[in-house]
Amino acid sequence: MLSIALFHFHVTQIKRSAGQSAVASAAYRAGEKLHSEYYGEDSDYTRKGGVICSEILLPSHAPPEYADRETLWNAVEKAERRKKAQLAYSFDIALQNEFSMQENIALARQFLLENFVSRRMVVDFAVHQPDKEDGGISNPHFHVMCPIRPIEPGGKWGNKQQREYLLDEHGDRIRDEAGNYVFNAVPTTDWGSPETLEHWRQAWADLCNQKFAEKGLDCRIDHRSYARQGIEQIPTVHEGPSVRAMEAKGVRTDKGDFNRWVRKTNAMLREAKNKIASLLEWLKAVKEELSKPQSPMLNDLLMTYYNNRNKGAYSTKAKTANLQRYADAFRFLQEKQLFTTDDLDAALHSMQNSISAMKTSAVEKQSRIKELDELLRMAQYYVDGKPVADKPGSIRFEKSRQKYKSEHDDTLRTFYMAERKLKPYFKDGKMPITVWRRERERLEQEYKDIQTELSPLYVDVKKLWAIHYNIYEVQHEQGQQQTQQRSRKNEIEL
Questions:
Q1: Is 324 in a helix, a strand, or coil?
Q2: Among 343, 345, 306, which residue's Cα sits nearest to residue 326?
Q3: What is the pTM of this model?
Q4: How many CA atoms lie within 13 A of 372 on its CB side?
Q5: Range of 88's domain?
Q6: What is the b/e burial string over 446-478, where b = at least 16 CB atoms within 10 angstroms of the residue's CB?
Q7: Which pairing describes strands 86-94 and 51-57: parallel, antiparallel, or unpaired?
Q8: CATH code for the domain in which residue 109 is found
Q9: Of 96-110, 344-358, 398-412, 462-476, which gets the smallest average pLDDT?
Q10: Residue 94 dihedral angles phi and psi, to the nearest 5°
């Protein structure tokens, strides 16, 4: 019987509406430092570990300069003018622990060339091999970024969508109540269609399974969801004869420990399945509480978001996790006394203003600390060099004086430099060294206090932006549904 190996193939969009940058995303995945012309800032991930390799694959019609990562993604950012533009597709795809890293990289490159580049897509991919995660199981994977906007044969960026006008029975264009032609926005490519994604998932599974067969391994991967496979549990990993032999001798292994954890978790999932009815009743009670006048809008939208997520969840574990995320978000909003979307926007605005003001203050204090450090350094040069500078006045003979000055040339030059720089600060022949030191100590403590205050603010802002994004998704979907309903109504009336 063939065992089930790891399959993970996830796709999202990188978009400005979520506060994302294509340049920053590419820098993170490749472990590089890239400059964003759109935002005017650098993203430096050169210290990021676990990046095995990164590469850009271009179709034949793409400009050759796009082989440079910074050039490519700045061009993508420049082509997208909307503040909420969709910039790129982002794929996270698991590699197989049963293959060597060289085999995995070759397999990933083959898959991308055959399925992405062949569709005239620009591909930027990076292979990661992070440290072992919980359970001791390695998680090698590769990230793929592809611009959503296609490149035309001439090398220019094309349109994402084109208009498809609705026609009446005579073949004439239909107008709406305002006199405008009614149309559907049709994608110019099939890259974002569910059918294409399904094809890619299957193609990757088939490619890996061919490799499994070539190597004589009794494991396979399946691109279908657990529900489509009829599986309601987490699969164990393939142990292999050597691991089984060690386990039989009483020697614990990473894979053996992981499989024991999986079996224990599956038992917990079966128990959780029996409790799901009570959890749903709890969810109903929470919804009733949230429908009260004091908090109608924000909580209703959040509830809708997690209800939608549960509709697409195939496992009890996923549903339970969604319920927990909702409960955490609900408690957080209650703690912050946020009940409406206006409250949320106001809180985000206030926190961001506070963060901006504190960061500005921190920068000013840091700049002043550097100035004080320089003054204190000059003061030390002055104090150390003053006896040396005064000595020639007590030497009677010119040759002896010149010899002394030559022997202490470095010290004297440093002293006179310090004396010039400190001249504006002398008062009654004295320097305020003690005042400078006290000011520096005070500023350093104030800087540390700001950093301490900023830390929880960053945490809260991150949570609020996550909730804001979830609510935006619901509102966007509701807006699309209303638009579709109006369009259908107009068609019926016509």
A1: helix
A2: 306
A3: 0.46
A4: 19
A5: 3-224
A6: ebeebeeebeeeeebbeebbebbebbbbbeeee
A7: unpaired
A8: 3.30.930.30
A9: 462-476
A10: -75, 140
